[in-house]
Amino acid sequence: MNWLVSLALCTFSPAVHFFGSQIISVQLPEKSTRYKLPGRSVMRRIILGILLAAGVMYVILHCNVWRTNSYWMPSTDVERKAQLMPCTFKPSTSTFTNLDIVYPFLCSHNFLDMSELHESFNFELPYGIRGAEKFFQMALSRLNKCGLFPEDESSPPCKKCVVVGNGGVLRNKSLGETIDSYDVVIRMNNGPVVGYEQDVGRKTTYRLFYPESVFSDPLHYDPNTTAVLIVFKPYDLKWLWDLLSGHHLIKISAFWKKPALQLIYKPHQIRILDPAITRKTAHDLLHLPTKFAKHERPKHPTTGLIAIAFAFQICSEVHLAGFKYNLHDRNSSLHYYGSDTMSQMIQNIYHDIAVEQRFLKELIDHRILINLTEE
Asked: Do 24 and 162 fall into the same domain?
């Protein structure tokens, strides 16, 4: 606030100086010993100066309030956020999930401002940007778009979405045509479409991924897909920058398994998810601990839960498919593709699948989510 006081003093100083000079002239008696009062024109200028200064202070103070209350945005960002507001968050959804509307993608021109607004400077990755600002700037500099939906006046303003998980429960359900009928289809990681169209459909609007889980085979390329990077560590951003810059990826050891060494998506198709979405998933939805003992492995939400939180930001109605896991049968199919079994998920120390399953059941029981693969 010191700069506001200084600016106020600077703004008022011409009027004060002028007024002061008039006071001094008033103190000098004329020969008749009567004081000379300022004329009407002088008083008008004094009053006008005070009113102008007050107006400047009003604008400054309110701009500061707007900024701290998330209303201060460039016009393009106001337009982007306006895309979300008319339809998202039915009262029951916002009350139950305790989520507010956040524009989900980072943009190169204002990611620092938005990160300050969302308090992401308070957290290191994976839930904030503290200490990784330069890596975000590097990666974002290679992306030329951060829009949500293509400019298409024929598309419905309120989106009905389906989030398609990779669960084995999708096998032999023949939901492909139903899934393709939604306005928005959200998938995650390397869950394939090719060869599984009858059960999972063909359409993909968004695909959430991280370096270790993204497709590298051009067979899976879809020109109509927007690929959304979930950032867990600074090297994820360095990886994206390296691949988009044509550099050779050197430190593969920084990843828990070998990441993709080429991108099948074009730069205009790639977005970076705001870490605030991941943080809200972990803390506001799943209520995962914010601190862990040194001997404990931190628990993070799965890509599937992050995808659902993302859907809450952009959709007026959210349905699910492929999120049912049989935790009691270690030999049941983990995915609708491949031969992995549920034992691998049970042994996973980075996620709390039981907590996620209970949370999803609550959402389904309250009809906030509709589960297409309910059994």
From this structure: no
What does the pLDDT read at residue 52?
Answer: 79
For residues 239 and 273, give the distance between their C-alpha atoms in angstroms, rounded to a whole number. Answer: 15
Q: Which of 68, 94, 109 is the last residue of a domain?
A: 68
Integer angstrom CA distances of residue 302 from 185, 196, 222, 225, 373:
18, 23, 24, 21, 19
Same domain, 206 and 105: yes
Give per-residue pLDDT as tens, 253-264. 899 999 999 999
Estimate to the nearest angstrom the gap between the alpha carbon of 343 and the chain centroid. 32
Query: CA torsion 279→71→96→90, rounded to 10°?
Result: -130
The domain boundary, picked from 68, 84, 117, lies at: 68
Q: Name the nearest CA neighbour of 146 among 234, 87, 79, 100.
A: 79
Cα–Cα distance measured from residue 366 to residue 357, given in angstroms and rounded to the nearest whole number: 14
Total structural domains in the chain? 2
Q: Is the same domain home to 157 and 257?
A: yes
160 and 126: one domain?
A: yes
Q: Which residue has the tokens 């799943």?
A: 286
50 plus 95 within the same structural domain: no
- Give 62's contacts (C-beta < 8 A, 6+ positions apart): none
One domain for residues 135 and 19: no
| Weakly modelled stretches of the chain, pLDDT under 70 | 1-40, 55-95, 150-156, 327, 346-348, 375
pLDDT (tens digit per residue) in 158-170:
899 999 999 999 9
Domain that holds residue 99: 75-371
194 and 333 share one domain: yes
Three-class DSSP labels, 255-272: CCCCCCCCCCCCHHHEEE
**For residue 126, cis peptide bond before it (omega within 30 degrees of 0):** yes
Query: What is this structure's pTM?
Result: 0.78
Give me the phi and psi of 104, to 5 degrees please: -80, -20
Report yes or no: 188 and 197 within 8 Å, Cβ to Cβ.
no
